[in-house]
Recover the amino acids of this structure.
């Protein structure tokens, strides 16, 4: 037996039995640490490899976890307040399959990631604990799910810490609900019913993601995806709606595009006091289309298609830049579609969408397979853009899908 005196002045006696006890304690602590590491976590830039190209483009992992699937920021939305960014997405268990997305749909739930430094580092937040309390097809809550109610008080859309999100319970039949926050998503209020009278047409449900333009304290223009059925045929169309009473009621202004053409997931900007531009994902066949309204959403005229897309299409993320140009960010899912293959791309317009530049590769040639895209994007005070999307490097040996950010100067 040996006697040791610690710096604190405490004496301890070390025996063979003490050694065995210390070994057991170390093993227990080690096991607990490994258990914690298996929980889904957001990754800071110091914990992952941040790749930077010669032209200053930075690619950062926002959420990555072995055994997990991270997907579809466009299904939730992204918001920013100067350099603070919040993005929503889905996390689920990874599922090895050769058909469709590699996730177990029954384990899907909602997460948020927040950055306080313009997208360089991120922290993870739980959707349910922040107030996202209604089950959807990608947010499985079981008996904890709460039913949506009618909104009774007007929302102040101009609150400096405001954000809003629309969520569909199913992909065709709906219904959809919405939530809002006055504290940058630290706590969401809702769910509230999203109800619109579409007059002479009878859709089966509203199946919206998030696409809105704040017009005033209680006025907002929103672009909704709406589902239809006719015997064995089903499709979706985009509707432009507006509220002037803080979200309590919504007036249908117009349908955007042709009837019975599957059109979903719009991304829209205001060009002037009465001019709106929306870009829309179409499928069967895949197209990216755009429409201009010069009477504040009452009628629409189709513009040139901004970019070529493939597979089943990919939703756009449309932004108006500080210099007045527009940029559109999207994913390409087939190698043969573009000379640079599968990846995330950007194109620009300097004439409000009448024509577009040749697409430029933002992220690619790094082993990604088709399961990528669904971007949202925000504009920073510096003029840089942060694009958020889901991605993978499966052909380079990593099968997991994850949430990524690309920061670039347009």
């Amino acid at each position: 037996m040996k006697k040791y005196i610690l710096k604190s002045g405490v004496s301890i006696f070390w025996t063979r039995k003490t050694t065995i006890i210390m070994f057991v304690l170390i093993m227990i602590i080690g096991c607990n640490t490994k258990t914690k590491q298996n929980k889904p976590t957001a990754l800071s830039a110091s914990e992952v490899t941040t790749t930077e190209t010669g032209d200053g483009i930075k690619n950062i992992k926002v959420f990555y976890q072995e055994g997990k699937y991270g997907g579809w920021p466009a299904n939730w939305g992204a918001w920013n307040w100067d350099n603070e960014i919040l993005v929503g997405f889905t996390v689920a268990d990874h599922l090895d399959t050769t058909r469709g997305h590699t996730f177990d749909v029954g384990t899907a739930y909602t997460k948020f990631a927040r950055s306080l430094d313009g997208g360089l580092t991120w922290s993870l937040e739980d959707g349910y604990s922040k107030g996202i309390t209604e089950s959807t097809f990608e947010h499985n809550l079981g008996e904890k799910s709460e039913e949506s109610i009618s909104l009774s008080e007007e929302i102040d859309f101009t609150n400096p810490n405001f954000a809003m999100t629309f969520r569909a319970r199913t992909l065709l039949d709906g219904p959809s609900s919405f939530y809002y926050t006055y504290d940058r998503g630290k706590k969401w209020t809702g769910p509230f019913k999203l109800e619109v009278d579409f007059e002479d047409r009878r859709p089966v449900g509203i199946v919206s993601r998030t696409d809105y333009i704040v017009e005033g304290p209680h006025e907002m223009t929103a672009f909704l995806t709406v589902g239809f059925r006719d015997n064995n045929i089903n499709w979706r169309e985009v509707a432009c709606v507006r509220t002037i009473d803080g979200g309590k009621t919504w007036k249908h202004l117009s349908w955007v595009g042709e009837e019975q053409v599957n059109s979903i997931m719009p991304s829209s900007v205001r060009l002037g006091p009465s001019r709106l531009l929306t870009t829309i994902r179409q499928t069967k066949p895949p197209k990216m289309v755009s429409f201009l309204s010069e009477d504040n959403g009452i009628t629409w005229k189709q513009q040139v298609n901004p970019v070529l897309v493939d597979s089943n299409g990919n939703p756009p993320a449309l932004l108006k830049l500080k210099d007045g140009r527009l940029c559109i960010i999207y994913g390409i899912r087939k190698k043969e579609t573009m000379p640079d293959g599968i990846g995330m791309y950007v194109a620009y317009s300097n004439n409000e969408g009448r024509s577009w530049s040749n697409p430029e590769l933002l992220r690619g040639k790094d082993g990604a397979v088709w399961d990528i895209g669904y971007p949202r994007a925000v504009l920073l005070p510096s003029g840089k853009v942060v694009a958020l999307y889901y991605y993978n490097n499966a052909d380079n040996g990593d099968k997991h899908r994850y949430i990524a950010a690309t920061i670039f100067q347009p």
Summary: Residues 1-40 have pLDDT under 50 and may be disordered.
